[in-house]
Each structure stands twice: as structure tokens, then as C-alpha cells.
Amino acid sequence: MITFRETLHRDLGQMLSVESILYRGRTKYQDILIFTNETFGKVLVLDGVVQLTEYDNHIYHEMLAHVPLMAHDAPKDVLIIGGGDGGTLREVLKHPVDSAVLVELDSEVTEVSRRFFPDLAEGAFDDPRVSLIFADGASYIRETAKRFDAVIIDSTDPIGPGEALFSDEFYENCRSILRPGARVAIQSGVPFYHSLTLKQTLERLCRHFGSARPLLAPVPTYAHGSLALIVAGNCETFCPPLDILHSRFARLNTRYYAPDVHHAAFVAAPRFGERRA
Predict the structure, then answer these.
(1) Domain with 75 in it: what CATH number?
(2) Same domain, 154 and 202
(3) What letter does residue 195 receive in the DSSP assignment?
(4) Does the structure show a pLDDT above 80 at 73?
């Protein structure tokens, strides 16, 4: 039996059986591997780290997109940094936004995603509200004159191409393109193993945006099955009352995200992994 072993952690890892390899290649920036697994379906791997699977990607994409957007009264313009597979974009477009700008460094990630995961974006790339830009996300944020109601950073871990998206300079530039009341959402790794990193990231985001809070998303194919997300911004709340969330939720069609999940994700996060802090 052929197996794939993830290389993100030196002292632990997960293994997935490989039914068939659909694609293997090297772009200018990273290695790409796509294979099928009996449980998770098609699996997308970048530089030896699982990014998404057919089976559970909706949990990550829904939480990353809907938590910041549902906390906003009326988000109109959204920026996505990374997310070249189109999953987060798919969720953003479920809201009545006027525009969604997606800035992806590696055009080949989008090309192979559209080829091998045709249902992942659900036509999002062809939506007239979307501007798809293949460029460095840090440079785009530093240079753009546009202003946004939400910035969603759907990046890889802070290694390789994604490293610049976790810097103080990047966060400060993000703050400068936010409208009043805007939110920023980022993924922040696996808190059980990286609780100190999560704490440091929260402190850094608080310095730049005024406030930040962690939340959890259960994603089976990420190590330990729990992913930390962070929302930040100079705003009143990241977790509106349930009656408000329910009124906004009527416009959504989701598989995991719901108003009660929104609240529960914040309750679970603060103490998670504290024994390692």
C-alpha cells in the first residue's frame, strides 16, 4: 500500500493511504501533490502539508469566511489573500457583497484546483463580482488604494511562500486598508501543539488591530483535528447576539457553520492547549 506522510511536524505526523496519484508537479514556488484517499476523497498537498480534502474542506472554508462576515453589519468589499483553490471565495460569495478580490501568489494552485477539484469553487471564479489577481499578497496590500470591510488570509503555514503573511509589517499594512468596523480573519495552526505561537500571534494582532480573539474549527485532516482561527479588528464584537446571527444566517446555505457554532467556537478556544503554553 502506498502512503503519504505529512512533513509539517518533526516529532509527529499523520499518514494517509494513497489510492492513486492524480497530479505531481513543481511550480515556481512550491511542490504540488494531488491524490485520492478512500476516506477523504481527493487531497491537495503543498510542500508536503495537507491543505484540503474533498471530505472536510467545507468546515475550514465556512468558518474562515462566515465568522468575520456574519459579525459585520453589511460587508460590501472583501479581500482574500491566498485561497487559490476557491473554497473561501465560494463561501464569501454567499453574502451580498459587491466585490471580492482574491490575490493568489501561485497561479498553478488555481489551475490544478479548477482541474482536479471542479466542484470546490462552485463557479465562484466566474462570478462577475470577483477580481482574480495572481500576485504577492503582501505587495498587493502594501500598494493597493482600495479599502475593504473584511480581509481573509487563507494562507499556508508561516513557512515558505506564506511566511511574509505573518509579519508585523504585513499586519500593519492590512490595518491601513480597512474601513471602520472591518474584520480580519487568519488561520493560526494547530493550537494543541502550537499554543505559544497562537498566544504570540494574538498579542501581535491586538497591537495592530486593537483587539483579536481565537476560535476553533474541527478539521479532521489537520494534525490533532482542531484548527485555530483568529479574527481581529477595531470593532465592537466578533460574536454578535444569536438573534442577530440567526437573522443574517437566513441568506446562507452551509454544511457546518451555524449561529450556535459561531458562539461555541469562541467559547472553546481560550483554554485549548493551555498546558503547553
Answers:
(1) 3.40.50.150
(2) yes
(3) H
(4) yes
Given this model, what pLDDT does residue 277 score? 28
Task: Give me the pLDDT at residue 82, please.
Answer: 95
149, 154, 243, 260: which is the annotated catalytic residue? Answer: 154
Looking at residue 225, its pLDDT comes to 80
User: What CATH code is carried by the domain that includes residue 13?
Assistant: 2.30.140.10
Beta bridge partners of 183: 150
Is 168 a residue of the active site?
A: no
Cα 154 to Cα 159: distance, rounded to the nearest angstrom: 14
**260 and 134 in one domain?**
yes
18 and 115 within one domain: no
| Same-domain pairing of 129 and 237 | yes
Q: Over the stretch 109-126, which tens digit does the pLDDT of each residue have?
A: 999 999 999 999 999 999
| CB neighbourhood size of 97 (10 A) | 19
Structural domain of 25: 3-53
Element containing residue 64 per DSSP (H, E): helix 57-70
* Mean per-residue pLDDT of the chain: 91
Both 134 and 258 in a single domain?
yes
Task: Dig out the grid coordinates for 34 from the structure.
Answer: 494531488
Last residue of a domain, one of 35, 53, 71: 53
* Gap between the Cα atoms of 209 and 211, Å rounded: 6
The larger pLDDT score, comparing residue 160 to residue 275, is at: 160
Which residue in the block uniquely carries the three cell numbers 478512500? 38
- Could you give the CA distance from residue 6 to residue 35 in angstroms, rounded to a whole number? 13
- Report the C-alpha gap between 238 and 163 in whole angstroms: 26
45, 38 contact by CB (below 8 A): no
Residues 139 and 239 in one domain: yes
What does the block give as the cell for 176? Answer: 491601513
